[in-house]
Amino acid sequence: MNLRKIPTTHYEQTERIVILLGHPKSPHPPFSKGGRGGICGGMLCASKSNLLLRTFFLLAALALCAGCLTAPETPLLPGAPEDLDRCVALFPSEPWECVHTIEADIQGGMSSSLLGITKGDPAGRKLHTVLLTPEGFILFEAEQHGDTISVLKAVAPFESPAFARGLMEDVNFLFLAPQARTPTWGRTADGAVLCRWESPDGSRKEIRCSAGVKITLWDRSGDLAKEALLTPPFVKGLASQMELRAHKPAPYKLKMTLLRRTP
Length: 263
What we know:
The protein is an alpha+beta fold. 18% of the residues lie in helices and 39% in strands. It has one domain (2-262): outer membrane lipoprotein receptor (LolB), chain A. The chain is built from four helices and 13 strands. It has a 13-stranded mixed β-sheet with strand order 1-6-5-4-3-2-13-12-11-10-9-8-7. The longest helix is centred in the middle third of the chain and has 15 residues, at 161-175.
């Protein structure tokens, strides 16, 4: 995967989104406590330095942990063609934009609240993601087209290629349909729909649909890399609640609540 750093230019669109969410007339509670004028009332919020410090330690510590589980072989009963459609329908098929609140937790009890903005074009395999503090301070912004990641802005220590690659892998995992070999699908013994995609590198992505939805990624060694639980109701195809648990190369958990999805 290729990464390149391009100069920071303007972030008017991102700022408009944050200002909208923090506007007194917005249907959602405001994120900023800095009053009127700009993302944070025209000046840095007093609590911003503490929040940034906690966020820096939280995300930087992700590189210090590790863990793994081995992939099970779940036998499948024959399924219907619409079972595969049910799995694929979990991912947007047209260009979209969404805003989430994010509660990030890692081992050791460290946690932080963040705001995530994601835009995608499934046909072109394009993604644009922004990670912000609740006050609207941009911590990280990047675009991805195919395997190429372009970092637009990154606040230290988030400028590392490993962080950019890991974050964009999470966004791919949650929002883009698998692009791998011909899938296999069927029903488990308890009647759940299970779809599998095997990648050329040996990794495997599985989607299990029953009362809820679970997406799982196994790496080329057969170890559990990450999994996500999607909770209904679904808003224009996106789950209202998502919980991502990463196991390799670093364990952490992200609880995401959908605030807005357009169009």
